[in-house]
Each structure stands twice: as C-alpha cells, then as structure tokens.
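Reviewer 2 asked us to include a model.

Predict the structure of this chain.
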Amino acid sequence: MQKLIKHAITCLLAGILIFSSVGCAKSVVKSLNKYDGIVADYGNAIDFMPDLKDLGDAKDVKFKCLERLFFPGGLSLFVAYDKNDYEKIKSTALFVNDFLVEPVVESMPVTELDYKDFHLKVVTDPDYDYCPCKSFGMFGYNDKTNTVAFLYYFDNSLDVIAWQAENPEKGMTDFINDNDAWH
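Predicted model (structure tokens):
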C-alpha cells in the first residue's frame, strides 16, 4: 500500500512539473510577414486589428504575438507616424471603435488607463458582451511619440482579469504585464 501511495505521489508531482513547464511554454512571433495569418486565426482579432495595407505612411511598425499552450497571450501592433498622420489615425480609431463605457464587476476592471506613456481604452467585442475579458482589444496612443497601439487578447476560458477594489488599474496593468503583448 505504501508503495502504491509513493508511486501515486511521484506521478502527481511529475504531472504537475510537466504541466507547469508545458503550460508556461510560450511562443513569440514578431515577423510582420506572419501578421495577416495570425490575426485571421486569433479569436476575433480580425475584427479589431488593422489591415497592414491600411496603416498608411507609417514611420515604424512593430508587431508581437505571444502564444502559450494553456494560458492567454496577446497580439500587439505599434505604429509610429509623423504628427499629421498620427492625429488622423488616432481620431479615426477613437471614432470607429466601440469602447467599454463602464467597468464590468469582477470581469473587466477598467475602461481605460495610462500604461507606459500610452493612454489605453478597452474596445468591446460584441460576441462576448456577457464577459468582455474573453475577447477584447485595446486602442492606445502616445502623443509624445506619435504612436498608436492596437492590443488584442483572446482566451475563451478567461472569466476575470482582476478586480482589486482599491486599485482597479493595477489589475489591468498586471494583466498586460502577465500577457507580455507589449513591445
């Protein structure tokens, strides 16, 4: 009987070790050549992330995709412009997107926040109105660098991002940090 218990504990510990190392394994893609294919296959990202052909006269474009086996990841696209183009792109994005109007208790802690010199606003996904944290975008802008950011997260199993009554922005900041979709 003791031998069976030891064997069961050993198997359990081995399973936990394997799951934690595989579950945390991640893949990072930064190639713009793979952007269209990734966006098409990543939740409803195609409804939010811009088409590369629509970026106009961008000075710099950075893309990042983080994928994990069992945990959420994210997509990010940062696009820098000259001042005039930046203002046009920013105004258009602020006009055409449907932004979350108020936080959703225990699901989406904030509607907007400042993060690393960007002002970010949560964009809703109508397919997930009942739980906006399963699929959502964030549009951000940095007036100092004339850069816009498109961030997208999808995890069908995610029900709560974080809810910290004293500091809801920290919950969202932690989520962004944990999902490493930032450049």
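The first strand starts at residue 26 and ends at 29. Residues 11-25 have pLDDT under 50 and may be disordered. We have added this to the supplementary material.
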